[in-house]
Queue: 4 jobs
Job 1
Amino acid sequence: MTARQRLSVVMIAKNEAELLPDCLASVSWADEIILLDSGSQDNTLEIARQFGAKVYQSSVWPGYGKQRQQAQAHASGDMILMIDADERVTPELRAAIEQVLNAAPQPDKVYSLGRLNLFLGRFMRHSGWYPDRVVRLYPRRYSYSDHQVHESLESGQAQVVPLAGHLQHLTCRDFAAFQRKQLAYAEAWAQQRHQQGKRCSVFSVFSHTLGAFCKTLLLRAGFLDGRQGWLLAVVNAQYTFNKYAALWALGQSASGEKK
C-alpha cells in the first residue's frame, strides 16, 4: 500500500492578521504550514504560530516570485500547496487534494485549482475571473519563476490536472486597498518590463486600455456579473492603463537621460 504523501502549505505574508485565521483554519489538516513573513507590524506572526505554522522572516523584498522560492525552501513535504492569506480551501477542494495525496506519487503532474474571486461582495462567475484556474498544488521538485509580479510555477512539460472544488479568493473586500495593491502591481510590472528593454508608445497605452475594457465586459461576458461586472471592466482598464503609462514614462525618462 502506498504511503500518503506529506503536504506542506507554503505562504508569504505581510500584515495579514485580519485574514490569516480563516485561511489557516482552512488548511489546518496539512502536515505542515510554512509562513515567510516580510516585516509585519501587526499580529501576523503570533497568529501563525498559534495555528502551529513554522514561521520565518525575510528583511529584504526580492519580488513575489523569489519570495515564494525562499518560502518553499523551508518546506519538507512531498507536495506543496501554495496559497495566500486572502484564500480559503473549501471542503470540496480539500477532498480532491486528499485524493492526490493518498494516490501514488505522480512526479510529472501538477494540479490546478479553480478560484472563486470575490469582487465588491460578489463571487464573480464571468469577466475572466472564473474559474480562474491557478497551478498551486505540485511536487516539491518544481518552483516559482523569478518574476516580481504575476509569478507562476515553472513546471516545464508536466501535465496540468484540474481538481474539483474551489479555492475562495477574497480579492476585493476593501476597494481602496485593492486599488493600492493594483497600483503597486502595475508599477512593479512596468519596472520589470523596462529592465527587460521593453518600451511602448502612447498609442499602445490607450489601445491596451480600451482592449482590456472590451475584453472584460464583452468577450469575457462581464455584463453577466451585473454591476460588479461593469465596475470590474473599468478597474481592469484602469490597471492596464497604469501598467502601460508607467512603462511609457520610464522609457521617456531613459530617453531624456541619454540626451
Job 2
Amino acid sequence: MGTIQLLDCTLRDGGYCNDCRFGLGNQRRMTAGLAAAGVEIIECGFLLDHVLYHPDVTRFTSPEQIGAILPGVPGPDSPQYVVLADYGRYDFDRLPPQPETPIQGIRVAFRKKDRLAALAACRTVRDKGYRVFVQPMVSAGYTDGEFLDLIRRVNALEPYAFYIVDSFGTIRRQDLLRLFALAEHNLDPAIWIGFHPHNNLQLAFANAQALVEQHSPRNLIVDSSVYGMGRGAGNLNTELWARYLNDQAGGRYRMGPLLDLMDGVVLDFYRRSPWGYGTAYYLSASHQAHPDYGGYLEEKKTLTAREMEEIFARMDPEQKMTFDRGYIEALYQTYQAARKGRAL
C-alpha cells in the first residue's frame, strides 16, 4: 500500500456554512489544532480576486495573507499549507513566487469546459514554485475517454496531485473505483491521487474506505473536514477518517486535538447553521444535479419531497451541472401553475 495522507478542508469547504467568517482566533486554533493532530495537509481557504480581504474571513487575495493564521516557525514535521483557487476567479499571473509566501501548494479547481485553459494556469502555478493540485470538478461528468485525455495532459504538466472530485456527492462505489482505476493505471506514478468526497448520499466515508481497501501502491490523499463541516450535506468527517486510518491503515493521528476543535470551534457554527444529510441534498445527488437546486426548492417551503422529485425529473440535463437561479425559478413556477390547473 502506498502512503495515505489526510487533507483537512474545514477552513475552505466549511466556509460555505458561515460565509467563511471563522474569525482570526478560530482560524489560528484550527491550523494549530490540525497540525497538533498530525494532519499532513491543511487547506486554509479560498484565493480570489475581486473580494475585500478581512483577517476574520478565509477568503484571501494573496497567499502572503495566510501567514497570519499559521502556527509558529515551520519545521520538518510541519503540515503542507495550501489554498484553493477556482479557475476564472483568480489571476494566476499575480501570484508571487512560492518562496516569498507561507504556503506550499495551490489547488486549482475547474469545470470540464475550462479544462484546457485551467491546465495552462496550473503550469503557471507550478512554474512559480508551488505544488499544484489538479481538481477537475464533477469528475463523474467526464467520459472515460475525456478522463484519460485529461490524465495524459496532466502527466505532461507533472503536478503534485491529481484529484477525483465528487463535487455533488453523487459518486457510487463502482464509479469511484472505475475512475480510480483509470488514474491508477495511466497517471504518472510520481503524481499523488486525491479524492474529495461530499456526503449527499451518505457515501463519503464508505467511498473513502473503498479506496484504502484497494491496497494500491499509489500514494493517496483523501479530503475531510472537522465534523463534516461543508456545503449542504457536508464532507467526510476528519475525526472519523483519522480514527479509521489509525485503526486500519497505520495512521498515527492524535485524536485529542481534533476533538478539541469540534468542541471549541466547529460545533458553535453547527448550532448556528447546521449542515448534513437532508432531503434536498439527497434528491439533488440522486438526479446528478448541483446541490443548490435542492436547497433552493427546499427554501420555498411549499413542496413535498415527491413534488421536488418531480421538478428534478423535468430538468434539462445540460442545466444540472451549474446552478441557475432563473432556470429553477421558471421550472418551479411552471410546475406550480400545472399543479393548480390539475386542482381545478
Job 3
Amino acid sequence: MQKEMTMPRLGESVTEGTIVEWLVKVGDQVAEYDPICEVQTVKVVAEVPASFSGTVKEILVPVDETVSVGTPIVVMETEADADADASDDDQTTTTPAPTTTQTPATAATTAAESTPAAETTTAGPRFSPAVATLLSKYQLDPNQITGTGHQGRLTRKDVENFVAQRSQPQAPQSTPAKTVAQAKPVQSGLMGRLATDTVQPASSIRKAIADHMVQSKAEIPHGWMMVEQDVSDLVKLRQSEKAKFQQLEGYKLTYFPFFVKAVAQALVKHPRINSSWQNNQILTHHEINISIAVAKGDELYVPVIKHADNLSVKGIASEITRLANAVRTGKITADDMQGGTFTVNNTGSFGSVASMGIINYPQAAIIQIESIRKELKPTPDGLGFKIADMVNLSLSVDHRLLDGVAAGGFLKDVKANLMQFKPGFELY
C-alpha cells in the first residue's frame, strides 16, 4: 500500500500553489518533516515537509505547475510497507539504511556521485540535492554562502546570487543562459548601435503576483480618492525622537508606523472599510490586520501586522522591522503572510506624490501613503503664509461595497488621527 501527499493549504485564503522546486527525486528515502519541495502561493514561498517517512515512488506534479489545495503531488511508500513487501517475497528483512550525512568539505563532491536521502548534516549549512548539484557545478564551498532558507538552509537562489556577485564567475560553458536573444537584431540609438530584444522567463513569484493583480482588476471595480494633509507636527515629533529611538531600539524610527497607526485607529470607526466582498456577501472582519508591501529584489511580499489597532507606534515600528527583515533574509513564514484585512502601502519611499493602488484581493481597500513634501500654505488666520509639510493619501476601494461617502469619511478620520502626532506624543 502506498500513500499520497497532497498540496497543503499555506494560508487561510490560499486555494492553490505552484511547485517551484522538488528537493527530492524518485527513490529517495525521506524522513517525516524533511522538506520535499518548495511551493509558491500568492502569499509566500514555503518549504513543504513530508507528512510521513518513506521512499519517494512517484512525483505527480512537475515544476512550475499550479494545482489546487488537496491535489496529490507525490506518492510515497512507507518503510513498514517496504518491509511487508520484502517479507512477502521471502527476502531477508534488513534495517533501512541510515540517512546520508554530508560535511561541508565533501558536500559538492558527494552530490556528483549520489544524492543524499535527506538534508541532514552534522555541521555546516543544509541544502537540497538540487543545490548540491549547483555547488558541485560551480565548485563552491557551502560554508562561504549565507543561507536564507528555513533554519539557515541554502537555497538555489542563494547559490545563484553568490555566483552573480563574484567578480569572475567560473560557471561552466554548458550552463544554459538565463536570457534568450531574439533572432532578429534591431537598430537603435543615435549612433546606430545594434541591440537585441531579450526574453526572460518570469519567476514563480512574479507569475503569482501577475495572477493576483489580474484577479483583483478583473473582479473588483476600483474606485479612487485622494486627499492631502498637513503633517508638520508629525515631522517635528519624529525629528525630536528619532535619535533617542534608534539608540534605545536599534533601528530607525520612520514615518510609516505613524501612518499605519492612524489608519488602524480609523478602521475601528469604519468597519465597512475593513471588510471584503465574498460570494455576494459582505464579510466584515473584526480583527484589524494591516498588510504592508515589502520588496525583495524584483519580488513583492505582503506580510501582515496582526491586531495593529492594539499596538503603539513603537509596537508597529517593531513589527514592520521584523517582517521586513524576515522577507529580506528568506525567513518569512506562512503565518506572517496571512490574515490581512486592509493594506497600507508606503509609496512615498519612492518619491511618489499620487498613485492608484491595486487592491490586495479579496480585501476591500488599499491606501497609498505618498511622500511628504514642503509647500507654501496660508496660515490659519489667513493673514500670511507658512512652509508646511504636506502628504497625499490615495485610497482605492472596492466599489461593490464602498462608495465615495464611505471613502471620504474614512479618510477624514485618518487625517484627524494624523493631527494627534505632535511633539510630546507618547510613542510607547
Job 4
Amino acid sequence: MKTIQFKSLNPKEKEFTEELKRNVSEYFRINSLSIKGNFWLYFKSFVIIGIYLIPWFLILFYPMSGWIALGLCIVMGIGEAGVGMSVMHDAAHGALSRKKWVNTLFQSSMYMLGSNIFNWKIQHNLYHHTYTNIYKYDPDIGTKAIIRLCEHAKLRKYHRYQYIYSFFLYGLMTLSKIILDITQLLEFNKKGITKRQQANPKREIKILLVTKAVYFLIFLGIPFWFTAFKWWQLLLGFGIMHMTAGIIMSTIFQMAHVVEGAEQPLPDSSKIIPHEWLVHQLMTTSDFAPTNKLLGWYIGGLNFQIEHHLFPNICHIHYPNIAPIVRETALKYGISYNLKPTLRHAFISHVKRLKELGLMKKLNHN
C-alpha cells in the first residue's frame, strides 16, 4: 500500500501549522511547564487501577451473593475502561513521562485488559493517528462486523438499523481484541510490519501468548479455584465486565471521529491529501464536553481529541489549557474547529452519524 502524503497548495495552512506549534510551545515556555505528566497524574493512575482491581480482590476473598459480585464486575468494567483510556493511552504515546521506562511500565497496563500493547501501538499510534479517518488506511473506521463507520464502505440493507444495534456490538470490543490480537499480530508478521518496527516477530508472539495465558489465569483461573462461584457464573461476570468496558471505550472513541462534521476524505490518484497534516486532523476530529472535568478526568482527556491528535506527545492533563490556543489559532485562519458542547450533544451526534451512514449510498473512491 502506497504511503499517503499530506500536501497543501494553500500557504495559509502552512502558516497555521507553524503558528499553532509556536503558540503551544510558547504556552509551556512561559509557564515553565513540562509537556508530560505530574504527581497528580500518577496518583490518578493508581486510583483508576484500584477501581479495576479492588473489586477483583473483594470477589476473591469475601463471600458474597452472585448479585453483589455481578455489580462488582460492572465496577471492574468501569475501571478497565479507565485503565485503557486514562493510564495506558498516554503512556503508549510516550506522553506520561519523560522517562522511557516509566512509559513502558504504565503502557504495560494494557496486558491487564487481556490485550497486546505492540498491536495497539501499530494500529492506533501508527495507522489511526497518521491517517485519521482515511478509508482503508485508518483501521478505526473500517467496517466492524455489521457496523458501517465510513461513507466509502459498502452499504448493506441491515446497516439502516445500526444506530440501534451498534452499542451492543461495541460491548464486544475488548472481548474480541483478546482473540483477534493473535490473528492481527500474525498478519503484521506476515506483511513485515513487525520487523519494520524493529521488533522480533517470534518474540512478540511469545509475549502475546504468555501475557494472555497469565491474564486468563488471574481473572478466570484463580477465581475458579478460590471462590464458590460456578464456572458459568465466572464466565458471566467476565463477560459483563468486558461488555461494560467495551461500550464505554468504543463510544468515547467513536464520538471523536464518527460524528457530524468529522470528515472522511480520500486521497487523490497520486495518494495525496491536499491539506497540511495538522489541518487534516482538525477536519477529521471532534472535541466534546470541554467543561466536564469529571468526565475528562476519567477518560484521560479524550474529550479533547483534537488536541490529542495535534500533539499526541503532550500529556492529557494539559489539554484543557491548550484547547483555547488551538481554537483561537484555527479561528484566525478560518479553519473549522469541531466542538460538541456536552457529552449528550456528542452522543446524539454519533447516533445521527451512524443512522446517516446506514442510509447513504456508497461513494466512488479510488
